[in-house]
Write a structure and sequence with these properties.
This protein is mainly α. It contains 6 helices and 4 strands; from the N terminus they run αααααββαββ.
Length: 257
Amino acid sequence: MAGKNQDVKATEVNIEDKLKMLFDLQKVASEKDKLKTLRGELPLEVQDLEDEVAGLKTRINNFQDDVKNLETLISNRKTAMEESKSLIAKYSEQQNNVRNNREFDSLSKEIEFQNLEIELSEKRIKEHTIELNEKSQATETSQLLLKDREADLESKQKELEEITEETKIETEKLNEKAQKIEEKIEERLLTAFRRIRKNARNGLAVVSVERDACGGCFNKIPPQRQLDIASRKKVIVCEYCGRILVDKDIDNDNIEG
């Protein structure tokens, strides 16, 4: 029943009033766009800085994990070296008490193997130490960069908050005004308005005819079509850009929501 009442209400609004309401809605939307332009690129800059800060924090955490892993590897290699040295001392002492050359040669091979293990550990420790220094330096560089970016982000956020606060009351008034107008426009036209506005580069979904041309794309409009637009008896869109067309005099007697 409610839907039927809305349909009846929609049919009671003539085309001329619909065009006036769409034009009024466009004016309010354009005012809201002007307020947004005051913020300029700040929202995008804030978003980019937030993304960069998050990326730097992840990078620093990864570097710190790498540093811990490398420290563990170095520590393990040092422990292995001490174990090898202990084994060498043990095998050397055992060589003094061997009963034959076979046992002596076997212990010599063990000593040789442990010496190779020590050389390998020294090599790995050197490699890990170089990598550790690089990771530590990269961590410090990233931390300094993070500090700068966080300061930039804080500054940009504060600037954006100040502008948003300055325009808050006006934005709320425009939102209320737009809502009142939208409540009077049938859903089909409102959906079309929003779709056109979304696709339009300058946010203009409803434009007037100026100097025999579309106020959106500036293509010429034939005289007969201009007469149809001026009659306000049907909703006419530009055949080039798809914007809703109204005559230039509609602003003189438009209805406010």
